[in-house]
Structure to design on (550 residues):
């Protein structure tokens, strides 16, 4: 039990953060506890600090909307946080879809689906950037926020806060797609919001770091990583995981038995010290 | 000229091919996606919260955060869920279930972070100060189906008239003689479109099985006369003639003499 907690310490922390944020939204709508009102598209902290989804705002710009100053400020707060501090942490620490796709991946592992499927369907991880570009083009052409109108993420968090309707069916589809069709299919390949935060968080400070002198090359980290191509330097050289596609979920850190992977702050000032692999 | 074997596949060619490939996939995806968006945008039978900008701009501006829904004390508003057949995540209300009770402090409008709900649309300036005025809201327009309204049968019913928050102004009762009995009066509800806010309290109050008075979005409920009709009996409307240009020549060719020509030319008539 103790080892289980140790090897899931970041996962547990992520679940607590994800569920706390959702609970605060639900409490605001259902019980009038206005600490955090609204939803992940746009919200208000304690009735004063606005927060907003910068990707939604970008689509609204593409659609030709002149939005209010409150929501612009809110988007800027979120954008700066992930740009400077968190990287792509939204995906693993905030987004409720992460719970569903993690569940699909757990089930996939439990039934050994990866090993029993002979021909895997290959999907480029760059599809998300094309979906991102397409959503902006369609927003421009159609005059509506294209991804926001179909987003399963929106269906999920709005569903939890304001009522699900038939949204459950769409979420089941995502679950089944991740379970049977493509491993890490939605979050790791298609989702344009993930693509957006991958681009935004490229230069952020909080990073996973690697010390290859203590690495035993057990490759447990690559087994659990939802974006395992970012772990290219593992067992080869010491340095920082610099890819913007790393979600800072901490799975690799918690499963590493030799402490060869750990969270740290990216060193921009003195690039000669232990940062040889940076950029 | 066949030089396929000798042709070198350059990095540039590879890049351009990759781009072309993604254009191909995006075209297919874009077709399906935009088809859905066009359908979603075309759903016109939807009543928005007070102060909402025009529907096309509303779809652009609404960020689907639900803060108006949370602010509404009567649970009137809800966000469109999958299965509601309305643009996903946008706020709307169904007056037959819960109408808009026209709060004088209009809590749903100032909380809108994007300006999809505009305070200026539900406020007026009194002595230089902006004051909220819910009677300026135009969420829709109540329309009476005279065939299912029992007041038009001659049965006395003024449920909608009494439910209206802008009573005796947005709905008035018109007295008409009942020729069938010869000694009774019809008291029929007539909606005044310049006063009706579209709150839907009348629809909620209507006693028939399915409401005989129901709120429709303005674009659907209202026609448009066009500028070329002028009320000659209305002095202020007649003034529009002064600003009209005198050039009113008709552009269709056949209109000049065709009225006579078609009679003269029709040989069948003279046989």
């Amino acid at each position: 039990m103790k080892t289980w907690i140790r090897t899931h310490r970041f996962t547990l922390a992520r679940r607590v953060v994800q569920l706390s944020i959702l609970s605060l939204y639900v409490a605001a709508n259902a019980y009038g506890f206005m600490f955090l009102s609204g939803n992940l598209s746009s919200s208000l902290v304690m009735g004063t600090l606005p927060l907003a989804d910068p990707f939604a705002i970008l689509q609204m710009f593409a659609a030709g909307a002149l939005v209010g100053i409150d929501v612009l400020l809110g988007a800027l707060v979120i954008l700066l946080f992930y740009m400077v501090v968190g990287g792509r942490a939204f995906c693993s620490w905030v987004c409720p879809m992460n719970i569903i796709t993690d569940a699909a991946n757990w089930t996939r592992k439990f039934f050994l689906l990866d090993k029993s499927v002979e021909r895997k369907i290959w999907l480029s991880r760059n599809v998300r950037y094309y979906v991102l570009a397409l959503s902006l083009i369609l927003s421009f052409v159609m005059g509506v926020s294209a991804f926001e109108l179909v987003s399963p993420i929106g269906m999920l968090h709005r569903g939890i806060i304001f009522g699900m309707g038939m949204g459950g069916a769409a979420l089941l589809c995502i679950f089944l797609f991740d379970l049977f069709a493509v491993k890490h299919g939605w979050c790791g390949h298609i989702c344009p919001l993930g693509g957006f935060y991958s681009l935004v968080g490229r230069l952020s400070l909080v990073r996973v770091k690697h010390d290859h002198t203590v690495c035993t090359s057990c490759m447990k980290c690559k087994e659990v990583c939802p974006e395992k191509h970012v772990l290219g330097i593992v067992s080869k050289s010491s340095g920082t995981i610099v890819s913007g596609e790393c979600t800072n979920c901490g799975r690799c850190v918690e499963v590493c038995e030799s402490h060869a992977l750990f969270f740290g702050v990216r060193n921009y000032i003195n690039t000669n010290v232990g940062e040889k692999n940076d950029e | 000229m066949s030089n396929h074997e000798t042709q070198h596949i350059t990095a540039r060619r590879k890049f351009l091919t990759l781009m072309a490939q993604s254009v191909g996939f995006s075209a297919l995806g874009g077709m399906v996606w935009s088809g859905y968006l066009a359908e979603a945008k075309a759903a016109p039978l939807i009543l928005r919260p007070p102060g909402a900008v025009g529907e096309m701009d509303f779809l652009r501006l609404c960020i689907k955060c639900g803060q108006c829904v949370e602010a509404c004390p009567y649970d009137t508003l809800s966000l469109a869920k999958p299965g509601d057949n309305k643009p996903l995540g946008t706020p709307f209300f169904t007056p037959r279930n819960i109408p808009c009770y026209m709060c004088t402090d209009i809590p749903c409008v100032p909380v809108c972070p994007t300006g999809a709900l505009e305070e200026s649309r539900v406020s007026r300036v009194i002595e230089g100060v902006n004051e909220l005025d819910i009677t300026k809201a135009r969420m829709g327009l109540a329309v009476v189906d005279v065939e299912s309204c029992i007041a038009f049968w001659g049965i006395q019913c003024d449920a909608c008239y009494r439910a209206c928050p802008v009573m005796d102004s947005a709905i008035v009762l018109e007295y008409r003689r009942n020729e069938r009995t010869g000694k009774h009066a019809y008291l029929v509800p007539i909606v005044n479109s310049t006063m009706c806010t579209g709150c839907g309290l009348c629809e909620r109050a209507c006693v028939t099985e399915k409401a005989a008075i129901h709120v429709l979005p303005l674009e659907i409920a209202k026609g448009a006369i066009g500028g070329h009709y002028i009320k000659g009996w209305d002095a202020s409307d007649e003034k529009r003639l002064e600003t009209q240009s005198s050039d009113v020549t008709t552009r269709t060719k056949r209109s000049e003499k065709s009225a006579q020509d078609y009679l003269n030319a029709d040989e069948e008539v003279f046989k």
About this structure: The longest helix of chain B spans residues 11-41.
